[in-house]
Every structure is written in structure tokens, then in C-alpha cells.
Amino acid sequence: DVTAHRYEQIAVFFGNNFVVTFQEREGDPFNPVRKRIASSVPNRLRARGADYLAYALIDAIVDSYFPPIEA
Fold first, then answer.
1. In angstroms, how far is the first alpha carbon of the chain from the final one?
2. How far is residue 70 from each of residues 39, 48, 58, 59, 64, measured CA to CA in Å?
3. pLDDT tens per residue, range 17-42
4. Considering the entire predicted model, what is its pTM?
């Protein structure tokens, strides 16, 4: 049931060398991004700037809504 899924506001701010996120609740959709950053395999998240990290975080937010929608 999609209506049973809890929605929240997540703010993302970024500049040349930083990304800041704010959330209303504990827990977040950013775990896949953290895993990619922590990986020892070279990847785009580590090679590109804050703008690409902001893109990846926003993409993770959107992706986190697909399981409830598809259910």
C-alpha cells in the first residue's frame, strides 16, 4: 500500500567543495552512495566534484521511492 509509506522532506545544498543534507527523520536513502564512496574500487563519486555527489544523493532519494510505488 503506497499510502502507508512515510514520506519526508530532505534538503540538499551544495557548492564548489561541499554537500549538506538535512532530513526530518532518522534513517536515510543514502546508504548505497556511502557504500560506493567507501569502496576501494575507483569510481565516479570519488573522481568528480560536489555537483556529482549531489546528483548521486538526489538519485538515491528518488530510487528509494520505487519499492513502495512498485508494491
1. 7
2. 29, 32, 19, 17, 11
3. 999 999 988 877 899 999 988 987 88
4. 0.78
Instruction: Please state, in angstroms and rounded to a whole number, the distance separating the CA atoms of residues 53 and 45.
Output: 6
- Residue listed under C-alpha cell 564548489: 16
Q: What is the DSSP string of 3-53?
A: GGSPP--EEEEE-SS-EEEEESSS--S-HHHHHHHH-SS--HHHHS-HHHH
Query: Could you tell me if 51 and 14 are in contact, meaning their C-beta atoms sit under 8 angstroms apart?
Result: yes
Phi first, then psi, for residue 21 (nearest 5°) are -125, 145
- Rounded Cα distance between 55 and 50, Å, is 9
